[in-house]
Amino acid sequence: MNPLxxxxxxxxxxxxxxxxxxxxxxxxxxxxxxxxxILPGKVIRGALLSDGSQLRYRCNGLFALTLLIAILGICAKxxxxxxxxxxxxxxxxxxxTFIFCVLVTLALYVSGRSSSDKSSSLKPHVSGNLVHxxxxxxxxxxxxxxxxxxxxxxxxGMMGWLLINLSIxxxxxxxxxxxxxxxxxxxxxALYILDYFVHEEYMTSTWDIIAERLGFMLVFGDLLWIPFxxxxxxxxxxxxxxxxxxxxxxANCFVFLIGYMVFRGANKQKHIFxxxxxTPIWGKPPVVVGGKLLASGxxxxxxxxxxxxxxxxxxxxSLPCGISSPVPYFYPIYLLILLIWRERRDEVRCxxxxxxxxxxxxxxxxxxxxxxxx
Length: 374
Prior knowledge:
Elements: H1 3-15, H2 19-38, E1 42-45, E2 56-59, H3 61-77, H4 85-88, H5 90-114, H6 130-136, E3 143-144, E4 147-148, H7 149-175, H8 180-198, H9 207-210, H10 216-229, H11 232-239, H12 246-275, E5 288-289, E6 293-294, H13 305-318, H14 330-354, H15 356-364
Antiparallel strand pairs: 1-2, 3-4, 5-6
């Protein structure tokens, strides 16, 4: 039999969602919906929308994640659920999640087209192009049972990424294949994800929450792309042994720490500036162009310096895999392409919105992402 045919006979059945994979997803989403509503957390006002309204976000993601891991840990100890359920049914869960994304986007499209709401959050933006409206979405902040779906989906994606990693870790321990590379990868990802939830309120001032409508692009990106592709390095290390030298480990840690400092520092400065434009940046009064655009701190170095930090972090997640294969570098390569595309879109929108102010900002901050390079 042709090897390709043999591979397909194994692959195709594993892509068909089983009842267990559906139960896992249903439990996961129901838990997040309930936990998000009842667990205590800091309530944050979102950005001021064009109609003067502000959405409220309950930032209890860290509590919800910690409690979920504790529940799953206890259930695994009692033999109620296997910690390997995700690692063993990864493709099933991926295909089930994809089907869920398609169904959700279809529901969003239909409800958006039929909406007559005039508020900034729910006002339908219909271009007349079905593909465009399905991909980019029709409404800015659609809700279901009072749950803000955009905020909910990105939370689900980030938690899902950690849960997949933990299941991969359990699998490597069971198989006896746990390595320094796997430990390094797991630590970096866990720190990044936990940091996201510690600073979850910063998400409320990001472009995705403020400006992007909720369509297939964000639904698929949050629920499937983040957890299943950002964990490729873990899947790869599960089947490939990589031995790292001490200098390589030190260099990898250095890339992670610098990336984290730039990424978190830039996002924190932006969030604080939006809350109080007079707050000092690096101990000095902020340089503000036209009373709207921050041009000091990290934002005086490059117009999208947070992207540089994000790219360094993505690279640090892949470096533990060595350089024998390009597969583990899918995430940083994809992220580079995505962020350049997004940065170009952002620049066009900002030029239209701020006009002369934007031209002055370009003069003060000429570099896009990496100073003296791009």
